[in-house]
Structures are given as C-alpha cells and as structure tokens.
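Q: Got a minute? One more chain.
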Amino acid sequence: AEAAQAAVAAATAAGTPAVLIGTAVPKIAPPTAKAAAATAVTLSSTSPSSTPATAASQATPLTPKPAPAKPTAPEAPKPKEKASLPPPVESPPAGKGKGKAPSSKGIGKGTGKGGAASPPTAGKDGAQSPPAEKGAATGGKGSKAGPPPKGKAPPGKAAGLPGKGGGTPAKAALPKGAPIGRRFEWRLLPSDKVDGTVFANLTQEVSVDVTCLRALFEKPKEAPAQPKAKGRAQVKTEVEFLARGRAQNIMIALKRQPLTERVVKALERLDFDEAELSPECIEILTGAVPTAEEAKLLAGFHGDISSLREAERQIMPLARLERPAAGQRLRLMLFNRMMQELCGDVRAGLSAMRTALDDARNSPAFRAVLAHTVRLGSVINFGTAKVDADDGHIAAVSGFGLDALSRLALFRAPGNARITLLHVLVAQVLVADTDLPRRLVEEMGNVHKAAKRPISQLAEEIGAFAREADHATACSSCRVANPMDVVATSLSSLSERAAAEALALREQLKETRESAKAALSFFALPAKEKEIDAKALELCQLLSEFLSVFEKTQREITRNPNLAAVCHSGAHQASLKAAGPRTGNSPKTAGEVSEGGA
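A: Always. Here it is, folded:
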C-alpha cells in the first residue's frame, strides 16, 4: 500500500495518470468545482498520524505546475464537455435584478459581489481543465461579471438587452448590395417595430422589372477619357471685323432673305427690272448692308475668304460695291419701284383738294342753302320788325361765318328738344326745291376726300419724293457717263425721270395752294400765306361735317312727313313728294313726330 501511494504521488507530480497493476479501478465521473473544493478541505484537515507517503500525497497542491511534456504519440481530440449551468432565474425589472441571463453579446450587470474564479476540473483521463475566465460565471448571488471580451459590447449596453438604466433601441439590419444609380433616401424600421403595423403581413409576391429600373435610374457609364494628343491642339481661328451683336443681326436678315447670286448680280448691274428684288426684299436686305466703316474694313481684307466668319463672308459682295455703295443701290432700286405709286398717290390727293374747293365755290345748291340760312338766322335773331317794302323780304345781315353751319344742329326748340334749327332749314329747302338736297350732295361730295388728305401732308410727301430724286441725280453725277457702263446708264435714266416727276408735283402743289387761297377768300376766311394749308383743311372739314349732318336730317324729314309739317307748313307735301309714294301708312301722332325728329 505504501508503494502504491508513492507511485500515485510520483505520477501526480509528473502529471501522468497512475494505474495500479492488478487492482480494479472503478470509473468515476470527474468531480465538479464544489467537489474539488470539498476534497481540498478534507485533505487539509487530515490527522498528523498518517504515514509519510500519505502526508506527502496530501500536501500535493491541486493545481500543480505542468512539467515539460514528453514527446508522445498524438491522441485523438476528445470533445469537451459543456459546463453545467444553474437553472435560469427570472430577471427582475431592468437595473434592479440580482442577476442577468447570459447572452451571446454580453452579460448584464448584476447587483451581487462577484467571487473568485472556480478551480480547474479534472477530465476523464485525469487531466485538469483550465480555470474558467472571470465574467463567465452566472449572474447569481455572489457572482461578479468579468470584463467583456475584446470586440464585444460592454455589459448592460448590448443591443436588444436593457441594462441598468435602459439601452439604445435596436437598428434594422441593412441588406448588402450596390444601389442602382443614386440611393433612395428613406427611414428603415427595425424588425421589432414592424409588429402591429401595416408592414407586418406584407407577404405577397411583387414583380420588379429590374431591367427597366436600370435603364431609367442607373448612371450611364462615362466614356473613357481620350488620351490628349501631345503638343498644343490647333484651333481654327476666324477673322472677325464686326461686333458680335451686329453680326447676329446681319445673319437674321440674311436668313429671311438670302443673298442669292441673282440678287448680287442685279445689284452689281443696278438692274431695276429684276423681279426678285421686290420692295419687301429690299427693305430686309437694307438691314444687312455694311456701313461705310465696315465696308472699308472688309474691302481691305486680301486674305483667304474662307478664313472669315460667316457673317463677314456673306456680306463681302456687298462691301465691294461702290459708286454707288450697296446701301445706296438698294435705296435707288426701292425708289425706282415705288416712284410711280408715290406720284400717283400725291397727284390724287392734290386733285381731290383742288376739286373740293372749286366745287364749293361753284356749287349753285350750296349757295341756295347759304341763302336760306341767312334769312332763317335773321328771323331767329331779329324777328320780323325790319321788312324791306320793295321786295317783301326780311332785310337782315349780309352774311355770316361758315362755322355757324355746324351750330345749326345744336340749336334746339324749347318745346321739343328733339327738333333743331337744322330740321327747319331742311324743311324750308324742300319747300323751295325738293331736288336741292340731292344736288347739294352730288356737287360737294369731294370735300370728304379732301378732309382726309390735308395740303401739309401732301407737301411733305412731295418733299420726300424730291429728296429721293436729288439722291438719284447725285449718284448719277458721281459716275462718268459711258454708253458701255450699264450702271451709269441706269442711273442717268432714273435721275431724269425722277427730276421730271418732282418738278411736276411741285407745280401741282403750287396750283392747289392757289386754289385754296381763292376758296378761303371766297368764303370770307382770311388767311396769311403760311396759314393757307391749315385754313384750307379747316374749311374742308367744316363743309364735310355740314354735308353729312344735312344729308342725315334730310332723310329724317323725308321719312316723317308729320315732322316736316311741324318744321314748315308746306313741307308735308314736299316731303311726301321727295320720299315718293307711301302705302299703308297712317298719320303719325305728336309722340311719333318727336321720335322722328330725334
């Protein structure tokens, strides 16, 4: 027995299991941590009467230092037995419980004081397991959690577990994957926040056309950058003589009316018969003609035409035209196209003015109306006191200003404001001569046209025509007469015709002013030499207005015989005669007469 105990002690010191030959050794389970602690207490209290070998074996420490291992054959690894855990204890409310249930991400902070680490336990083959780490013990009473492993959350702050004072809410796990283009910004809900919401049971299958999404939202791949050529790239430079805004306006005009080859040749030859150069075309091209300074710069360029900017290249043919320049040629061609029309319009205006004034002077119907007006006004103003015994007529004023004609329609009867003195005059004229109103309208119808074309306006148009004729003469004088020069021949012909027309228009204007002066004197409207144009216009406007109102009143009298009878006792039959036969008409009442007078 002593030999066996000595062998056990030696084997224990060497760290190898001891086997007693011939002795049946029962298989026992490895002692737990509590059993190992009890064995240590029992050995320490053994009586001193034990044998030396026993005392030596009892004095051997439970956790001896391992001796250097001898080279032996490797043994197959055996699975480690899991340490038995105490039954779970229900945890009190957060921050006040005595212990926390173990978690895969850390241990909650307990309230009890932690104890020392448990001693190693012996395996089945007699080897001892390493001591348990601090903090791996359960959080029961008397235990103390150790420091957290490296890379894990500290106790009490692990995600999803409320430590002391509560923890942060769990975040939703984001799926991995590259976005299609830019990310769509939204707030994700964690899984524990989805329960009880509209997103809890969204299980139906949804088909997404990824191809369309990529085509719509995926950023296009940038083309690989082309390697820059070594050396400085050659940039094509264009020669510019015009300002940018000026060049832009020229290109707009040339886009509306291109400067074709036919147009250029017509300008070079000064062909007045070219159909393509209409007045509208000439007005558009006038905006593209270079000025004198621009033409000088362009004409002085002797380089390659293709090196010019498009605007300068387009108007280069116009810049090379001279004596006369391009702008003057377009002006001459426009004047040649419009000359006959201008002359005809001015002649018509001058003729209408002379005819209207002459008709007013020589109209027998108008003189008769003026005679009726003089006698009617004399009776209104002076009554019947002054009577000439010789002829029985009222000896009244000799004449009056023609401006009184416009006031006849404003002089209303006190008893019936719808009847004016003009109604009485027309009724009196109809009694004297039923055909007189018709002749008056025919003889003085030209005053309406004359009132629209005053002499002053016609004089300005003649002056403009004369300036264009003088311009043609000046352009012709700058070109040496040569039968072989087409431009000189065209200029000479135009200047001669324009000068003749301008002279004829001046003569007609002079005649018209003489006729106006005579008419103003005839109608007792004195005017100075500078006032003839204005006074003649006033006379024509006055006569035109009176003629319109007289004609309107005559229609009222003719359509309403009762109104004529009110204005003159003999006008009833005269109005019926002037109006012609009437059928189905009954005599009108006084109210109808008043209404007709209006």
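A: The longest helix spans residues 326-362.
Q: Perfect, thanks.
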